[in-house]
């Protein structure tokens, strides 16, 4: 089955989508507020005009309250110079005067009587497909009650609002298109530094890992990215250098025993020899092959450890007992070289993998024995340190290791000085394995050396790695 992974949107589309959304929402809100404000202004304008109409009608009604004809004539002349205004007067429930042939009574029957004419008290209705806005007022003159219906044709305002809305929509649409074009150009220009970084990155090859991106030529927002990329290049360069050295070192380490085996075998086969000579040749070849086997085994273990294929099994460990059992194991070798093994101090029990801890201590002790002159002492000191940690120090007397070597002493196949190797049974991987084991237990290891001794110190947490 083929899985289709959805491609993420480009930065340009993301920005344009955000700008379009934000601009669109802003335009809708602004246009609604604008139209609402204009419509409210029209309502207030109608309220003022209706107020003038009502006052004029009341004034006309007071001129001839007893003479019907004169009263109607006064009402016909009450409003002049106003367009689209209508009024209807009822006296005691009977139509008294209407400014037009439109009957406003049916739609206004249930309207409340208004005393104060404001924008909020106006009513709207439709009559014969036309819209009106108006009010109903009452006035009493000489025991006659007049019901006044005042109305204004609102279709004129609605027509203006419709055209205005269309014009605003076209203007806003054009503004939106221009804004998106400007935003697109802005994004393109804003991404120019990224395109420059891309060109610089394309220039970097395996033979140019010392190149670095220029932090001063990019905007401040991209400086953390450039800094992280430069740090990544530094780590890659260091790893590439280590890998190159490792390849050269492993070739050298494998070549020496293989050359010995081939040379000795060729010499042994060059002529007929005694059985004892062939046995000695086989023993010599066996020694070199055992060294090769140990080297391959150590390299395989390191590779598994780096890829998380080794799962430590944690248990309670008494370090003093472990060190003492290793002393018993190395006792014969130490006696041959008249080296004294001494242990002092004590620590709390720790949680760790017993086999791995024992392997690390074995490597350190065997390394110390190889580099300790005859008649000297190897001291192991156990102490409890701060922050629930324990310290293990292994000190051997001997020549000094220079500081520049101490920084790389835990690298694979790294040799300080061939003259320090009095025995040829080392593979150059022991200290690298020690560091890997210590780090697997969330501990640290470091080395220090002075004019008469060298000390390796391990710090391990009492409770082991945090779960």
From TrEMBL:
GO CC aspect terms: plasma membrane
PROSITE patterns: HAMP (PS50885), HIS_KIN (PS50109)
Enzyme Commission designation: 2.7.13.3
Topology class, membrane: Multi-pass membrane protein
TM ranges: 12-35, 168-188
A GO molecular function held by the record: ATP binding
Sequence ranges assigned to domain HAMP in this UniProt record: 188-241
Protein name per UniProt: histidine kinase
Species, as recorded: hydrothermal vent metagenome
């Amino acid at each position: 089955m083929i899985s289709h992974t959805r491609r993420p949107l480009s930065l340009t589309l993301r920005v344009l989508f955000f700008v379009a959304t934000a601009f669109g929402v802003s335009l809708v809100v602004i246009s609604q507020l604008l139209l609402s404000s204009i419509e409210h202004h029209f309502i207030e304008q109608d309220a003022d005009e209706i107020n003038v109409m009502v006052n004029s009608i009341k004034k006309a009604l007071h001129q001839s309250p007893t003479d019907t004809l004169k009263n109607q004539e006064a009402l016909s002349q009450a409003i002049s110079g106003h367009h689209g205004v209508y009024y209807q007067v009822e006296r005691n429930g009977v139509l008294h005067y209407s400014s037009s042939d439109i009957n406003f009574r049916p739609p206004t029957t249930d309207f409340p009587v208004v005393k104060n004419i404001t924008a909020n008290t106006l009513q709207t209705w439709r009559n014969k497909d036309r819209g009106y806005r108006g009010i109903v007022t009452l006035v009493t003159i000489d025991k006659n009650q007049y019901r006044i219906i005042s109305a204004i044709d609102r279709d004129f305002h609605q027509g203006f609002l419709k055209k205005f809305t269309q014009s605003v929509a076209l203007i806003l649409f054009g503004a939106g298109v221009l804004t998106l074009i400007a935003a697109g150009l802005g994004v393109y220009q804003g991404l120019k530094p990224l395109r420059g970084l891309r060109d610089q990155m394309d220039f970097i090859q395996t033979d140019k890992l010392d190149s670095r991106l220029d932090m001063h030529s990019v905007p401040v927002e991209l400086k953390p990215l450039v800094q992280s990329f430069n740090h990544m290049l530094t780590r890659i360069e260091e790893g590439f250098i280590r890998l190159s050295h490792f390849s050269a070192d492993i070739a050298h380490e494998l070549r020496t025993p293989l050359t010995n085996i081939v040379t000795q075998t060729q010499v042994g086969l060059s002529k007929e020899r005694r059985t004892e000579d062939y046995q000695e040749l086989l023993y010599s070849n066996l020694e070199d092959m055992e060294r090769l086997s140990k080297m391959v085994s150590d390299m395989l273990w390191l590779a598994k450890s780096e890829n998380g294929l080794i799962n430590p099994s944690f248990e309670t460990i008494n370090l003093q007992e472990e060190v003492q059992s290793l002393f018993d194991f190395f006792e014969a070798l130490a006696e041959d070289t008249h080296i004294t093994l001494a242990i002092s101090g004590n620590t709390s029990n720790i949680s760790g993998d017993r086999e791995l801890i024992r392997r690390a201590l074995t490597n350190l002790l065997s390394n110390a024995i190889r580099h300790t002159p005859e008649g000297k002492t190897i001291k192991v000191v156990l102490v409890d340190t701060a922050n629930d940690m324990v310290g293990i120090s292994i000190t051997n007397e001997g020549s000094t290791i220079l500081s520049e070597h101490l920084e790389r002493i835990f690298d694979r196949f790294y040799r300080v000085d061939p003259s320090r190797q009095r025995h040829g049974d080392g593979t150059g991987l022991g200290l690298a394995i020690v560091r890997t084991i210590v780090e697997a237990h969330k501990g640290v290891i470091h080395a220090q050396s002075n004019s008469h001794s060298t000390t390796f110190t391990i710090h391990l947490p009492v409770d082991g790695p945090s779960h």
